[in-house]
Each structure stands twice: as structure tokens, then as C-alpha cells.
Amino acid sequence: MIINRSKFLVLPGIVSLLLCSTHPLPAQKKQIEEEKKPWWDAPQPRFSKSELGGVFTGTIDMRGDVKVSDRTIFKAVAVRLGKGGTAGTVLFDTEMMRMACAVPDKPVMFNTYRDGLGGAGHWVGSPYLFTAESGPAWADEGGSFDDIRKGKKAGPLPRSWAHYRGLYRHGERVVFSYRINGIGILDMPWIEEVDGIKVFTRTMEIKPSKSMLILRLCQTLDNSGSPTSVLLRDRTTPGVEVAKKDGHWHLGINPREETVRLKLMVGSMPAAQSNRFLAAAGKVSPAETLSRSTAGGPPRHPDPLVTSGTVGKEKGPYVLDTINPPFDNPDKILFRFGGHDFFSNGDIAVCSIDGDVWRVSGIDQELQKVTWRRYATGLFQPLGLKIVDDRVHVLGRDQITRLHDLNGSGEADFYECFNNGCRIGKHVHEYATGLETDPEGNFYYVKGHGANNEHAGTLLKVSPDGSEIEVVATGFRWPNGSGAGPNGELTVADQQGTWVPSSRVDLVRKGGFYGFMNAHHREKSPTSYDGPLCWIPHKVDNSCGGQTWNTSSKWGPFKGHMLHCSYGKCALFLVLQENIGGVDQAGIYQFPFKFQSGGMRARFSPHDGQLYVSGLKGWQTSGAKDGCLQRVRYTGAKVAMPRSLNIHKNGIRIGFTQKVDRELAEDLDSWQIEQWNYQWTKRYGSKEYKVSNPSEVGHDKVEISSARLLEGGMEVFLEIRDLAPVMQMKIAFDLETTDGDEMIGALHNTIHTLGPAL
Question: Do 382 and 405 belong together in one domain?
């Protein structure tokens, strides 16, 4: 047993942990004096001016005068405490079940990289109300605090030891819920002000247990000018013990058959202030019954924001309707969207990278009155969202969170940790993106590379009940999205960079390696990689988004086709895919419209059959606005576009949505084809190299022997001698339909193999 029970101060009753604010220590004063500005005056990104909802989740560092083995909390929930959230901030480590530290008055300070979108490098600093050593906060069943995680030490502890269930929101209060050695615990931090002293309290409700539970509360700091003391608020429950051991305060709870409610109080102060602290502790309110906070509380954002949409008036088969976000709002909330899905009544749930989930109503044909209700706040840069059985599942860097509105108030009250098995690091680009499901109900998302752990640069699969996570494929750099098709197809789209010659859309197979060497996760470094479904030239799509499949019969002639979003170009592409002998390959063709912001996610509504796209402006993109939520509506007009692409040994067959004018179709001047390859190296991206001379930069022109309009008038066969696999091809055309409509554009495709001659 870690704690010698004879050294415990046994106090019956509800235990209280009181932490009071103190003056900075001499070392802290020196640190602040040496800085040009106090840490709380550092420059901050725009979203720091927003009303963040009282909670912020991120990777947060403990700076200043703190002595812990690891200053970084990878999955930290920062909760603002006290009335109005102005009394201080506490950090809870959801992997270690640890209250890591608390600071008086100040909020978390944000990394300004990419306007606060780095995700890591946020911080708090001295003075601290208390600090807790890194590692597990609760002992395992054997009484040990040793970190037994296998491999690189990132990710949660084993569920049998410490299982984070989530957090409840009840007014301004946050109640954490977790299990230790199978025992359910509710844990609520707060700050009360008594006689001018700010008192940090920690109320706990612990289910019956047949074994002893031991919590390592905080450091004693006995050798400092302000040692930490632990007091108990109430003294009526036997079997609760607090004591010092090895430089830490510990809490021990003996086996018992009833639920125990504890309120803990810890104070760090000079000895001269100890009497004031003791007097204040006696006036702290008794422990609350936390289970009363688990049935839903009053809404925190009861008044919706109202906008009107803009219905597109352009002519043509596809027009953009804009569901205008309330950019101009009193709380200065930003609207930078990373994912969306549909409730059964037609409402949309949309998440923002700044941590919010919104419920959007009034999605009808006219969009005259659109209401925006803030459904959840404080999530860790959510960039994926999926609704299953009318429950929102939202993907953050730290976990998949399932949101519950427990009392029908229109806001989520329980932020359930559906799965937090992913391992993360401190890299600013380490986004988790694109939450999708397959026909069996499994969830999928892709993790960007950055951290040196098993999940960096991988496609991950989570079981339908959230209990298991596994790696599907490796070798991804910084993909911004993925897709899942109706037949279980899985896609990922990566960005140009080191080991990624150009943008690429991958049709993923289990166990595949997709080129980024820093994330191959193999014992031996691979010498080749799985080719993409299609390469995309950097000038055509410099930053990919997610993919979706057209499952609607109300969206023109492309049912069954894959669609690809471009974040960088704010564009949408039709994917023209074929399979030859088990080998998949494709080309892309751009739709003739542009989104207001970088295209992140696309989904078809099961209610009106139209395509909805959400997007943001956070890094390099041609987008004009912070975010967008737009509907791509099919008007019923004739579509004049390519619809199929097939590669043969003797040429290329291209299908169109309308009959093509024969004279132009068979005129060789109507067609221009060029091709080139890329080089797979550790250099950032690749130049475009001739196929005829692999060391020479440039393109090769592809000679077309003849062009023939096939029977039916909707397909053209381009006869090409010596056609061979190539990484990138561009097929430009200038045609007309038989009705006189122009069809001018270019396909960009990849050839892996050739089908039978036509």
C-alpha cells in the first residue's frame, strides 16, 4: 500500500480540499520581473475575445515556478471557476484523472499560431493555487501509482484502472465523471470567496467499494515559502483519511457499502496566513449532492441567434444557397466550421474549430429565418461530426465526444467520452479530422502526424460502442478529412509536403501505407507505398478537404459518384472512378462554383436530397470568410459535364451527361492531353517531371491518333498509341452539346493500369 494508514489524519465526514490564492513566491516575483510583460498580458488570438462558454479543452503547459516531471497536459480541460467564471482556472487531465493545477483569476493563455488554431502550446503560469505531480492521480488496485502504459507514454490509462466517462454541465458548474478500479466517481472543482480569501474546493461523490481508494491530491511544497495544507470540510463520515507522504498530500477512502460525499480544501500560503485560512475553511459551504447535477441543468445559452439565408439566383444546374452564420454577435463568437450532419427533423448540427457545436434550424427552401442555438462549448478543436440515432458525436483532437441533452433544454448537459484512446502530442498541426461511419456502425477518422506515437499519421477505427480503437492504415502527413462510402469504402486526402509529392485522394485498404515515411509505423522502413486513387496537381487543389458519396436521386445525374472537397481552392470536384482487375484509379473534374470558405466536409441531406458543405478559413485558402455553411442545390436544369472516365490499352473513353456535337467531338483540336510524373522524396512536394525524361522538369504532350463519338452520342473514345501508367494526366477539352451548350474544362487523372482495348 502506498500510504501508511497510521500516518493518516482520520476525520469522519465529508472530506474537503481547499486551495486558497496566495501572493507570488520570491522566485515567482523574479520570474515576472524578468519578463517584458506578465504572462497574462501576452498577445492573444481573436477567439480569446469570444465568450468561450466557461470551458476550454486543449494541450496546455504549466509554466513558471512549478516543479513537476512533465509540464504538459496533453488532454486538459480548463474550467473557469467562481461566479461568472472570474475567480480562477483549474486544469483537469482526462487521461490521468488528475486535477493538475489551478491559478487564481486568470484564464488559459492561447498560442497565437494560425490565429489560435495550433491546438498545443497554450499555457497557465505562476502563481499557482496548487500543483499536482504528473502521472496517474489514483492508485491502481495494488496501491501503485506507476505509469504502466505500453509503448510511448501517451494516451489514457487502462480502462480497468482509470476510465474517463465525461463531464456534466450544470449552470456554471462542471462535474467530471470517471471510474477508478471500476468505482464510479463524480468530481467538481470550484472556488468560493470567504472573508476575502479565495478558496478552491473539490467536491466528490464516490460509489461503494470493496477495496481502498487512494488519491494523490497535490504537492505539499513544504520547502517553499508557501507550503500547501489540506483540510476537511465535514467530519461526520468515518473511514476517510488525508496524510502527507513523499512530498504529496494523499486521500484514502476505506472500503464501504455506501456512497461517500467529500469536499476537499487545500491552501498554499505563508505560515503567517494559516490562521486566516483555517477560519475561512470553517465557513465553506457543505458538500453538494453531485448526482443531482447529472440530470440536466438550466440552459446557459437560451437565446438563439437568428439570421436569414441567401438563396442562389444564378442560372444553371447547380446553385449555391448560403445559410449565413451570425458572424456579428454580441459575444464575438467565431464561426469556423469543421463538420456537420443532420438530425431526424432536418436540423443541422455543425461544429466549429473554436470548440462549439451549434444546432441550426429553419433549413427549408427559402431560408428566411435560420436560428442558431449553441448546443455545446469547450471542445478540443472539433473537425468532424456525425449524428447516430439523433445523438451528436463530435471529433476533437483528444476524443470522440457524444453529446446528450438530458432534460430537453436544447443544450447538451453531458459530454460523454465515447472514445479517448487516440494518442496525441504537442505538434500544432496534429489535427484529428473527418468523423465517418461504415455500414456496420464503426467510426473512422484520420490523425495528422506530428507526435512520435503509434497513432500519428494514421486512419483510426473505433468500434460502434466506443470501447475499442485500432489503426487501419498508416503513412499520412496532415490530411484534412476522410470519407466513408455506402459500401464500406474508406478514403483519405493528404496534403503536399515532405514525402507527399502533391495532393492525393486515397482509397484506403486495411494495412496500407500511403507514402509519408515519418508515419510508416513498421519495423523496417518501406521502399514503396500504396498509390492513390488519384493524384491532384498542387495548382488544382493545394489543400484537400473531405469526401462524400452522392446517395441522392434528387441531385442530378451523379448518383453513386464520389465528391471531393478542396479546402485550399474552396471548390468541389466530381471523382470519376473505375476499377480494372481489382486496381482502382480515378480522375477529378471541378464544379463551376466556389464556396465562401475552405471546403471541409460535405454531406447529402436525407430530407431534401441536396448537398451541404461546411468550411472554414484557418490556414492557406482562397476563402473570403471565416466559415461557411452552404447548400449546393440542383435546379433541374441540364448538366453539361463529364460523368465517366475509362482507360483502355489503346486509348481513353470519356462519358458525358449529354449528347456531344459530333463535329467538335471528333476534331482533334478540341482535345489537349499532357502528362507528367512526380518524385517521392523527403523534399517538400515535388516538381513536375517529364515521363520521357524523368530528370527533366516539364510535361509531355500526348498524341491523339483519332477521336471517335461512340454509339449513343454521349461517349468519346480518344485513340492513343503506347498509352502507359502515369502519375498525372491532364485532359483538356472544348466541346458543345447537341443543344449548343458549351462544355469547356479539364480532367486530371492518374493511370495505374490499362483495361482491355476498345
Answer: yes
In this structure, the answer to whether residues 603 and 462 fall within a common structural domain is yes
Q: Which residues are paired to 612 by β-bridges?
A: 603, 631
Q: pLDDT digit string (tens) for 541-554? A: 999 999 999 999 99
* Strands 122-124, 55-62: pairing kind: parallel
* Strand 305-307 to 370-376 pairing: antiparallel
| Together in a domain, 407 and 516 | yes
Residue 598's CATH number: 2.120.10.30
pLDDT score of 679 more than 50 = yes
Write out pLDDT tens, residues 51-106. 999 999 999 999 998 999 999 999 999 999 999 999 999 999 999 999 999 999 99
Q: What is the DSSP letter of 276?
A: H
- Answer yes or no: do 158 and 126 share one domain: yes
Q: Which of 283, 282, 281, 286 is nearest to 261 (CA)?
A: 286
More confident residue, 318 or 223: 318
Residue 713 pLDDT exceeds 80:
yes
Give the separation between CA 533 and CA 549, rounded to whole angstroms: 15
Q: Is 207 within 8 Å of 261 (Cβ atoms)?
A: no
CA atoms 44, 50, 55, 58: torsion sign: negative
SS3 per-residue string spanning 411-445: CCCEEEEEECCCCCCCCCCCCEEEEEECCCCCEEE
Interatomic CA distance for residues 696 and 704, integer angstroms: 23
Q: Hey, what's the cell of 564? A: 471531393
Residues 430 and 424: beta-carbon distance below 8 Å: yes
Please state the rounded mean pLDDT for residues 687-709: 98
Number of domains in the chain: 3
Q: Could you read off the pLDDT of 364-383 as tens digits, one per residue?
A: 999 999 999 999 999 999 99
* DSSP for residue 292: G
Q: Tell whether 297 is covered by a domain.
A: no
| Calpha distance 551→489 (Å, rounded) | 14
**Which helix (DSSP H) or strand (DSSP E) does residue 28 occupy?**
helix 26-34
List 154's β-bridge partners, or say none: none
Q: Please report the beta strands in 514-665, taking only residues with DSSP state E, as ranges in sequence order.
A: 534-536, 544-549, 562-566, 571-580, 583-590, 598-604, 611-616, 627-634, 642-648, 651-656
User: Model pTM?
Assistant: 0.93
Q: What are phi and psi of 148, to 5 degrees?
A: -105, 10
Determine which helix (DSSP H) or strand (DSSP E) holds 159, and give its type and residue range: none
| Final residue belonging to a domain, choices 589, 616, 634 | 634
Q: Which three cell numbers stand for residue 663?
A: 463535329
Structural domain harbouring 716: 642-751
Residues 167 and 309 in one domain: no
- Does residue 511 belong to any structural domain of this protein? yes
The answer on 676 and 629 residing in a single domain is no
Coil, helix or strand at residue 328 = coil
| pLDDT, position 2 | 37
Q: Domain with 671 in it: what CATH number?
A: 2.60.40.1220
Pair 390, 249 in one domain:
no
CA atoms of 735 and 740, how far apart (whole Å): 9
3-state class (DSSP) for residue 19: strand
Provide the pLDDT for residue 20: 40
Task: Tell me: do 474 and 333 sit in the same domain.
Answer: yes
3-state SS record for 48-104: HHCCCCCEEEEEEEECCCCCCCCCEEEEEEEEEECHHHCCEEEEEECCCCEEEEEEE
Evaluate whether residue 466 is within a structural domain. yes
pLDDT tens-digit series, residues 478-528: 999 899 999 999 999 999 999 999 999 999 999 999 999 999 999 999 999
Evaluate whether residue 240 is within a structural domain: yes
What integer pLDDT is reported at residue 38 of this predicted model? 62
Whether the CB-CB separation of 370 and 385 falls below 8 Å is answered with no
C-alpha torsion 553→324→616→45, nearest 10 = -160
